[in-house]
Amino acid sequence: MYEDFYGFSERPFQLTPDPSFYFESVTHKKALSYLGYGLNQGEGFIVITGEVGAGKSTLVGHLRNRLDWNSVTVGEVVTSALGSDEMIGMAAHSFGLEVDAGDKAGALSAIELFLQDEARAGRKVLLIIDEAQNLTVGALEELRMLSNFHLGAKPLLQMLLLGQPEFRQLLSEWDQLEQLRQRVIASHHLEAMQPNEIEPYVMHRLEHVGYKLCPGFEGDVWSLIHRESRGIPRLVNRIMSRVLMKGAMEEREIIGEDLVRAVIDEMNGRAVETAPAAPVKKHAPQPLPVTPPVEEPVASEPADEAALLDAQIEAIEKAFAQRDKAISSLRKEMANLAQSASSEPSGDVEERLAAIEMRLEEQERSLRHVLTMMIDYFESSATRNAA
């Protein structure tokens, strides 16, 4: 993998959120300020929204690492279209409370007793709800009811709602959520990174894994990456992962515009022009057929993911089988050449060796194309699953 070639301690551009790679862009700094203010209030709702891959989970992971676990207890719910009754049960389970799935009253009672015990022990309680755009209006109303728990005049529960942009719209437009809106004490929408933040973001992640100025970057690579990623961190990660992979395969110590453009073209399904092969010398045997490239995946996804995966695997297997046959033939020719080397003029032997080397390069170039397409497909699938 490219981390070995460039001497990194780990992959710096993985798609899964990792708070240890937290980068404080302008918008993330604002979000963290709103979170700090809201947590100091100790009540109501804090709302953070952003596009898929904008860094919401990384931000919250960074926040959790900064909390004093002796003074704050955190529960977390990742929703999947939960209804009102399910919401109460999931909230209870997030705090480690054992409740019956169908006993809503019992779950509410257990949550209230837990919150009172935490308050008496001097601890605040924060409930984090991820993917809040999937919640029903009834589930959101149940959360509002949980915020009513008090011990004397002291609120017992604070909530952080994370969601995609549609949750922001839902919260602002639905009349049924007016009471919840009134309890939102801090709200921020994570914007995309600015063009001048792409280079610092990339360097921040590289330095985290032991970057030692290799590879270098030259030309207009940062504006190309910003334009293609729209400043969304996860998309920057995906592009950079592919760029470094291709750079390692081509043993490049400098990443330039040409390589970045080639990666972007491959990711968008555009054919990449390659230089024509050099003509075979007069006495050299005719070159074997080059392994045909794997068909690019079209932009629109088929309805049957399993069928698409099978087709990709079958195409890859065929490509490798043809390459194996070609390599076997080249080995036989090398053996014959070794036997005749002593009887033939040295110039003719050199010509045949040059032709074989050229054909090996063609096979290697074809293999790189197959591997690139395979990586693109599986990384694209991982991106969809992570989103």
From TrEMBL:
InterPro entries from the xrefs?
AAA_22, ExeA_AAA_ATPase_DNA-bind, P-loop_NTPase
Domain of life, per lineage = Bacteria
Q: Which SUPFAM superfamilies match?
A: P-loop containing nucleoside triphosphate hydrolases
ORC1/DEAH AAA+ ATPase domain location, by residue?
41-171
- Region (Disordered), start-end ranges: 274-297
Q: Where is the composition biased (Pro residues)?
A: 286-295
Q: What is the protein name for this chain?
A: AAA family ATPase
**Whose protein is this, by species?**
Qipengyuania polymorpha
